[in-house]
Every structure is written in structure tokens, then in C-alpha cells.
Amino acid sequence: ILVDFPIYGGSYTTAEYTVQALKDLGCQVETMDNAIADPMLQYMLKMEKYQNAVIPKLNELMSDLLWEKFLSFKPHIVFCLAQAPISQHLINAIRQSGSIVAFWFVEDFRRFPYWNDVIKYIDYFFVIQKGEFSNQLKDFPQTISRYLPMACSPQIHLKLPKDAIENDYSSDISFMGAAFANRVNFFSHFTDYNLKL
Fold it and tell me: Can you count the helices (H) and strands (E) in the chain?
């Protein structure tokens, strides 16, 4: 299995855990670590006037690198995580070679609507949301879609003694996730509560 990492974000850590889980299952795993593209992407995001022209070129470059990794490793499955750069023509080339392309969309489908473009070309599409999203996925019968919720890594997420939980981690409100500006703003309104992030 070739795991295609996102460039940055919370999905990056999820990709790391995914690789470990696949190895624990006995799979031979290679990775396409796209973090090298993060500084370029951040630079491009500052060039508002040219974003629409240059960001697709970065996606193509990273797709070309993925193709080279694909040719050398010859995986049965290419497993992409949300925000992983992969082009439509590369997805088609991988599928034409006989390999499967799977995509785990570990994002909010309302906030990142690009899933509409990705789902049309892949074999398997995994999501972390049900309800309305599940209904929309029915519009793409050519792709097998399944609910695959987030989980924990037993090597990292260890059970703590009860007194440690009560003393160190108890709170009125808690949140685990990336400190995006909208989240920081939201939680700034909870000053009257024992809030732990």
C-alpha cells in the first residue's frame, strides 16, 4: 500500500497513524510524504493574485513525484488522505495499471467541497461523517463509499489511571484538535468554564 500524505494539517498525523496501523496488520507500506511542499504552498497562498494559476502547478508537481514512487513500488493500493495532492490524470493512470485508489476524507464535507471532484475518479471513498453526507454520496454510484470513523492508536493513546484523569484532565469542556483561528475564536467565549484543549 502506498499512502499519499497531505501537505499539512491534522490529516498529516492521521496519515502517520494509518501507516502504523497498516504495518501492524502486516501490510508492506511505502509513503509519499508531501510535507516538502508545505513551504511552497504557504508562499503561494500569500500570492493571492496568482493562487489559481500556481497552486494547480504544485499539485501537478507532487502528483508527478507520487507517480515516480508508484512506478518504483508498484503497490496494489494507493491510499490518499484528505488534502493529499493527487491529480485526476494520475488517478486514472494508477487505476489503468490495475491498482486501486482509495481516499479517506477526514474533513468536513461542507468546509472542503473538493470531495465532489475527487470521488468521481476513485475506487473507494471513506468518510468520517454520516447523515446528510451519506445521502450526497449516493449520487456517485460508480465509487464505493463507506463510513470509516477516526479511532485511536493503542501505542499512543494509553489508558491513564483514574486519579490522573481526575486531577490532570477533568474539565467542564474539552476539545482535541488543531488550533485553527476559527476554533480559537470560538473557544475564547468560554472563559467562565474550566476549558481544556
Answer: 8, 8
Burial track 145-161 (b if 16+ CB lie within 10 A, e otherwise):
beeeeeeeeeeeeeeee
pLDDT in tens, the chain (197 residues): 999 999 988 788 899 999 999 999 999 999 999 999 999 988 988 888 888 888 889 999 999 999 999 999 999 999 999 989 999 999 999 999 999 999 999 999 998 898 998 999 999 999 999 999 999 999 999 999 999 998 877 777 777 787 776 777 778 888 877 777 888 889 889 889 888 87
Closest CA to 12 of 124, 178, 160: 178
Closest CA to 107 of 133, 78, 73, 87: 133
Q: Report d(CA 185, CA 168) in Å as an integer.
A: 24
Q: What are phi and psi of 124, to 5 degrees?
A: -130, 135
> Which residue carries 492508536 as its cell?
153
Whole-model pTM: value is: 0.84
Sheet holding 144-147, edge to edge: 30-32, 2-4, 77-81, 100-105, 124-127, 144-147
